[in-house]
Amino acid sequence: MDTRLVPDGGVYQLLLVLHLITVIGGFGGVVLDSLYGKPEAAGGGQGPSGPLSGRHGPSGPGVSEWLIYAVPVTGLLVVLVSEDRWQFSQAWISLSFLLYLAAVGVMHVGRRLPGPVGGAVLNLLVVAVVVLMVTKPGA
Predict the structure, then answer these.
(1) Which residues are registered as beta bridge partners of 60?
(2) Can you tell me the mean pLDDT for 101-123?
(3) What is the pLDDT of residues 14-47, one digit of tens each?
(4) Residue 121 and residue 84: Cα distance in Å, rounded?
(5) Coil, strand or helix at 65
(6) Which candidate in 39, 57, 111, 116 could, as Cys together with 47 as Cys, close a disulfide (CB 3.0–4.6 Å)?
(7) What ranges in the chain are assigned the alpha helix state H?
(8) 83 and 55 in contact (C-beta within 8 Å)?
(9) Would you say 73 and 25 are in contact if contact means Cβ atoms under 8 Å apart?
């Protein structure tokens, strides 16, 4: 592994862990809902919205949805403290933010899409962002 691309600071490592937790907890909850066929994740808009659901329930957004909204905040902080090793001008970062915005749009509009279309599109967007984060094209 090329250690020049890994900042040594503990703050960077802490923020990176928080970023991963928000991604896994946020999108992971919604992706699992769609894999298990829960209607609220797949776009049907029916069915229970529990406290961990990515959808709005009777009391507001679930934990997954709040974590999804924290993803770009933690991602921005990771880039800012990366000692200029990661920059917003790098293609993988810019494209990741663009796909994140698309995923949030699908998450909100997906409730109106027929059948499992919303969940499938959201899952594909999440996979695309994970591939970008791992491969870092243009870094």
Answers:
(1) 57
(2) 80
(3) 999 999 999 999 988 877 766 666 554 444 444 4
(4) 33
(5) helix
(6) 39
(7) 10-35, 39-42, 63-80, 91-109, 117-135
(8) no
(9) no
> What tokens appear for 66 in the block?
């709040």
Structure pTM? 0.74
- Token look-up 């810019």 returns 94
Q: Is residue 87 packed enough to be buried (19+ CB in 10 Å), middle (13-18) or exposed (0-12)?
A: exposed
Q: Whole-angstrom Cα distance, residue 93 to residue 117? A: 27
Residue 30 or 91, more confident: 91
Which value, in Å, is the radius of gyration of the alpha carbons in the chain? 16
Q: What is the mean pLDDT of residues 50-55?
A: 43
Tokens of 32: 């699992």
Q: Give the whole-angstrom CA distance, residue 57 versus residue 108.
A: 13
Asked whether the beta carbons of 87 and 64 are under 8 A apart, the reply is no
